[in-house]
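note to self — DONT lose this again. spent like an hour looking for the file last time. sequence + predicted structure for the chain T wanted, 277 res
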Amino acid sequence: MPGTLTLPDGFPRRVKAIASDLDRTLIGEDYELHERTAAAIAAARAAGIHFVVVTGRMFRSVRPYLESAGIDDLVVCYQGAVVADPVSGRFLSHVAIPLDLAREAIAAVEREGFSLNCYVDDNLYVAAMTPEAQSYAEHQRIPLEAVGNLLEWLTSPPTKLVAIGDPKELDGLAERLREQFGGRLYISKSLPFFLELASPEVSKGAGLGFAAEQLGFSAAETVAFGDGENDFELLDWAGYSVAVANAHAGVLARADFVCPPVQEEGVAQVIEAMLAH
C-alpha cells in the first residue's frame, strides 16, 4: 500500500462522522467499491465514526454498496429527498415533488426534447425505452419500466426527475429551467450528463442535516467528501470539506482540502491518514 497521505494542519482531530458522495468520489467509472476504500470505511466505523453515504442515486441502487461495505448508518439518497435505514429499508424522511409542479417540469423538459426519468416509490419509469434510459438503468444497475405518456401516467408525487443528455445541452436546459421555475425546483447536475430536478427543499446538505439529528452528530464534527455540482450543499454543511482531485471546479474552489482522485481511492487515503493522526 502507498505511503500515508499528509493531512493539512487545519484538518479536524475529532471527527464523529464522515459523509461522502458515491459516484466519482467513493467509486469510479467501473462502479466498483474497491478493497482499499471498503477497508478504510470499515476501519472508520470500528473507530466509532459514523459513515453516511450521501448520493443522488435512488435507494435501491445504492443499497448493494452499503451492504457490501457493511454500512448500517442512515443513507441520504435522491439528492437529499430521502433519508433511509439501509437495514430495514424504511424511509425516515421523504420530500417528493408536488404533483402539479412535477407535471409542469415534465412538460417543460419534454418540450425541449430531452429524455426524462421519473422516480416513484423507489422505482424508475420512462416514457419509452431509449438508449439514454437503458444506459442510465445499466449505470444504476436497476430495472426500469416504460409507461408511455408520463403526464397521463403520473398520479403520485415523484421523488425526483432526471433529464439525460449532452452535458453542454443540459447546461442550457438548466439555465432555462431556472428562469422558468425560479426557486420552485431544486436543479443541479449529479454527473455531467444527468440534470436532477427535485423539491426546492431538497439538497444533500438538508438530507445530511436530518441524518445527523437522527444519529447524534453535528456539522462541526463532520468531514464531507464530494466531486459534483450537487455536492455544493453537502460540503457547505459539513465542518470540514474535502474534494477529490477529479472534482468539478466549483467543488475544488470551496473545499478545505483536495485529496487524490477517485482513481487513486483518495477518500480511503484521507481516512487512513485521519485514523493515523
